[in-house]
């Protein structure tokens, strides 16, 4: 026969703690040690587990309530059979006896541990003194695990600093996790990390050495000697107290002996796993159960917006975040030009590591700054945009004759301007964009609308010694051939001299990448998001073309139009390419 039992608040180490999250509901079936509620004190957040398996019948607390040891959280129906009062008393007596025996055993273990601590206190003091003597303006102190309650052998789940890092007072150094809580060990003072004595996965207890911290020393030499003497005296006192005092005083003595130069330790504070293993200045409020769930999903809690009180992250927030991330295309953090990471939900295997030196002599050359910046963007655009490329040719025989005539006139007038075929391509593209406005748009952030632009700015890919850059020529539709030519010459010089500003490469509506001066017959240019299309231009060549009566030599220019298939379909792209080709073949069309 099942019986109702009270769910009692165990020893939480504080007078009162606040209930910040209810983890079960009436009617839920729970296992032994399953978390019932999450509470928070000034030091940490922790889960309160149930002592038996069963079904939750009622809850007597709500979020925001203050509770203490012995309070009733609710009632649950246990599967255990009812027993009479004598049996219950007998079990209670046996339990009490058992607890006393365990307490005695713990006291014995503590006495042995304190004896070991007192033996090592002297050597720690010597190490601290030697570190101080290295510099009159600074000293090196030991940072140890402060009082973390009754917990021992607590696992380190994250290192928040590295050797050489500079930290401020109260910054988190490591993150510890017990079955009930997650907490940081803070820096007692501001300074520089000299060395780390622990690693992820290590088990530590109160007094364990975490790291050596170099801090400023404002005291005079004589003051330092007094401090060293005081430290030695406190170590001796700790050794004698560990033999004669009670368990409680023994614990206090251990605190004194393990604190170098009598440094006061701040209590551990709740912490979140920070992105990239770097120190995070902000804190994420979440219970241990939520943190475990986040780790299972591989979620960085710093990226999750909390919906609970004081922006506390709830289980529902983590689940919603996972659903959102799975439903949208994105780049994985840390993607780079040479990384194997992917975006857009593509599950592509990372590049295997290859030792090229075993095949012959090699040399490693670092990427240029431009390559490092453009690589991730090119990668993102390629894997997140569904590319289609339309190929065509434009007859530029008359256009080339006209261009040469205009260059001769400009040279005769000493205008200092040289007209290139690229100028006419820009005018032809701007004209086609007016006819087909979808080419002058961008997908909205939600991906459910198009942002239609009323201006016509065209980006021009420029090859430089450091890599590819794309400066932007603005209002192409409003400028003449000479004005655009002059502007093109100016930005080309700035690009090759590395003098382009960030503003010079922003705001494009469409991009043109011309390889005509080098060679090739066609290629597939990558759309430069947020643009939705890009025109690739290859080297022109004389080809025989049928005019209805016979073949005649014509100068043909290969065009490669890549576009975002989410915005532009094949038929529209073909019409756009024909429009550009026609405008280049007969410039009078642009005037109509």
UniProtKB/TrEMBL annotation:
Catalytic activity annotation = N(6)-[(R)-dihydrolipoyl]-L-lysyl-[protein] + acetyl-CoA = N(6)-[(R)-S(8)-acetyldihydrolipoyl]-L-lysyl-[protein] + CoA
List, separated by semicolons, the cofactors it needs. Answer: (R)-lipoate
What is the enzyme's main class? transferase
Q: Which InterPro entries has this protein been placed in?
A: 2-oxoA_DH_lipoyl-BS (IPR003016), 2-oxoacid_DH_actylTfrase (IPR001078), 2-oxoacid_DH_E2_comp (IPR050743), AcTrfase_Pyrv_DH_cplx (IPR006256), Biotin_lipoyl (IPR000089), CAT-like_dom_sf (IPR023213), E3-bd_dom_sf (IPR036625), PSBD (IPR004167)
Q: How is the cofactor bound?
A: Binds 2 lipoyl cofactors covalently.
**Biased composition, class Low complexity, residue ranges:** 236-259
> Might you report a single GO cellular component term?
cytoplasm
Database matches in SUPFAM superfamilies: CoA-dependent acyltransferases (SSF52777), Peripheral subunit-binding domain of 2-oxo acid dehydrogenase complex (SSF47005), Single hybrid motif (SSF51230)
Write down the Pfam families for this protein, in alphabetical order: 2-oxoacid_dh, Biotin_lipoyl, E3_binding
Domain (Peripheral subunit-binding (PSBD)) spans 285-322
GO process annotations (BP): pyruvate decarboxylation to acetyl-CoA
Occurrences of domain Lipoyl-binding (ranges)? 4-77, 138-214
Residue ranges with Acidic residues bias: 215-235
Report the GO molecular function annotations: dihydrolipoyllysine-residue acetyltransferase activity; lipoic acid binding
List the biased-composition ranges (Basic and acidic residues). 86-130
Please indicate if the UniProt record lists Acyltransferase as a keyword. yes
Source superkingdom: Bacteria
Ranges for the region named Disordered are: 70-148, 215-289
The EC code for this enzyme is 2.3.1.12
Explain the purpose of this protein: The pyruvate dehydrogenase complex catalyzes the overall conversion of pyruvate to acetyl-CoA and CO(2). It contains multiple copies of three enzymatic components: pyruvate dehydrogenase (E1), dihydrolipoamide acetyltransferase (E2) and lipoamide dehydrogenase (E3).
Assembly: Forms a 24-polypeptide structural core with octahedral symmetry.
Tell me the protein family, please: Belongs to the 2-oxoacid dehydrogenase family.
Q: What protein name does the entry list?
A: Acetyltransferase component of pyruvate dehydrogenase complex
Q: Which organism is it from?
A: Glaciecola nitratireducens (strain JCM 12485 / KCTC 12276 / FR1064)
